[in-house]
Design a protein that fits this description.
alpha/beta; nine-stranded parallel sheet; 12 helices; 9 strands; globular
């Protein structure tokens, strides 16, 4: 299995904790080793509380944490930079990929984005709910789209063959970016038709994503799954079924958002629980369908071969 989004780096930076087995992490080394997840994407997320002038420094600190505390200490964790890195993983090896959640940290300076890409970031989320100098987020009241600088950013991501992540962007921004991005993805969101949360995608957005050969990482965040007091795997299945009804069998992936919240689907609260999800889904999908949704779709559309 492949997971497109977690915020373990943020928690490790915030609390200055190790990756090995700290129980404050939904994704830590020991639980990852007990899970069927072969590749985990680790997001660089800089909280709004960080002063603007310090955001790029914090991004670099999180990259340092990624290499020093996740990659360097473990010979069985491999830094993923291209599709072949995943294909060559041994049975006892796991892959770790760097992603970025929000472009506040680059301001209006493309060299900072180029630096992050050269350090191995393979998926770039344009916003995190609020406005930045690239695009408005879904939480920005005016609901504007790309800025002139934002168009330059999309051109750069296309040039470097990087996934452009549309999670958190405004509705208008989504419509603009989906036309321009060569490699679109929504790393963690669900279906608005099933659960009308602003962060979820409407049927129209999903259909545009499918048309552009994009991916949609279904997420385990309770408020994105249901508006009921608790969320179950059956509730998550409704999102999967709806996405498939829209023709999205090639688009389904998973983006847990572990370490990004404290309210998840029941029995899906840490990376090791992917084993339970896998068993549950076996009752509803063929082995071929499951392989596509848990790994093959991600591999087929990985921009860097």
């Amino acid at each position: 299995m492949i997971d497109c989004h977690c915020d373990a780096l943020y928690k490790m930076w915030l609390h200055q904790i190790d990756f090995e087995q700290d129980d404050r992490l939904d994704v830590n080394y020991q639980e990852w080793m007990q899970s069927p997840v072969q590749v985990q994407c680790f997001a660089i997320y800089i909280p709004p509380s960080v002063p603007a002038e310090a955001t790029f420094t914090v991004a670099m600190q999180m990259i340092d944490i990624f290499f020093e505390r996740i990659i360097a200490p473990y010979t069985n964790i491999i830094f993923i930079q291209k599709k072949e890195d995943i294909a060559q993983l041994a049975v006892n090896e796991k892959g770790a990929m760097l992603t970025l959640e929000g472009l506040d940290c680059i301001g209006a300076e493309l060299y900072k984005l180029r630096t992050l890409l050269r350090l191995g970031v393979k998926m770039v989320g344009l916003s995190w709910n609020h406005a930045n100098l690239v695009i408005d987020g879904i939480g920005e009241g005016r609901g504007a789209g790309l800025t002139n600088f934002g168009y330059e950013v999309i051109d750069l991501l296309n040039q470097y063959k990087i996934w452009t992540d549309l999670a958190h962007v405004s509705r208008r921004g989504f419509d603009q970016v989906i036309e321009l991005a060569a490699f679109p993805i929504v790393s963690h969101a669900n279906c608005y038709h099933i659960c009308p949360h602003p962060r979820n995608l409407t049927d129209q957005q999903i259909q545009k994503l499918i048309k552009k050969n994009g991916l949609m990482g279904l997420t385990f965040v309770k408020e994105f799954v249901t508006n009921q007091p608790t969320a179950t795997m059956q509730d998550l299945l409704l999102h999967m079924a709806h996405l498939l009804r829209l023709g999205g069998e090639q688009a389904v992936v998973f983006g847990s958002d572990f370490d990004g919240t404290d309210q998840y689907v029941t029995n899906l609260t840490s990376i090791k629980d992917y084993a339970e999800l896998q068993r549950f889904l076996q009752g509803y999908f063929s082995p071929k369908q499951l392989t596509k949704m848990t790994e093959q779709n991600f591999l087929d559309l990985f921009p860097c071969s």
